[in-house]
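S1.2 Input.
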Amino acid sequence: MKCQTVTFDSKTKFKNYVSSINIMPTMYNRPVSQSHVKTMADSIKKIGIQRGLNVIVTSAFSKDGVQRKYFADGQHLALAIALVDNKDLFGHLLGFENHVDNIEDIIPYVSQMNSTAKNWTLTDYLNSWCTTGLESYEYIRDLQRETGYSLNGLVEAFSNTRGFGNTTFKQGKFKPNKSVGNKTLSDYKGACEMGLNKGNSSFLAFVRIKTDFSKIDMAHVFNQIQRTKHLFGAKFNREYYLGLFRSYCLKK
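S1.3 Output.
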């Protein structure tokens, strides 16, 4: 990745540069907070600009193949700069330009760039990878909308492994195991019909029990849930359900 620092000796040139930078056309940036913009503008007037604008230069979003500039981080700062008169503008007039060719590289880059300001959730990664047209992510998004189950639980169910940060999913390399995942959804539906409380906590606990004990006897699980539905039918957190599964369903 090519990187360069752009500096300016003119406030007007710097402002023109800032105004030429685009907002990412996807879900990468936080919604603009006007109160935060005003606070930053007041800060600039007092202590000047104390950091550079982080910019991505790429043709990945252009149908015409032309490279354009986008904020990787700094859209609030840019809007604040526009509010400050030239006579009150001082400090570090610079931008850090990072040339990124592939859209697949932009998502991890921006998520790391914003990691100190905004922790990306799995949903942020899901929405971003869906914008690139990855069918596996669109499949999971449609499934989440259809079932209402937590994204974390669905990712674990269709990867047949515990999350541990869901690194593969975040990297855009997720490939759902549909046969395993759909069997898990079917088994969970059966468990709920036997008396298991339906909800994200019980769903994730159920997924993890099946992940950790792949040879678990589902007929035995259904039987134990039905026999102790006064316990399994109550609303608990994930760890409590895991405890119930271990106590009643993993022993014969």
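S1.4 Remarks. The chain has two domains: 2-120, 128-248.
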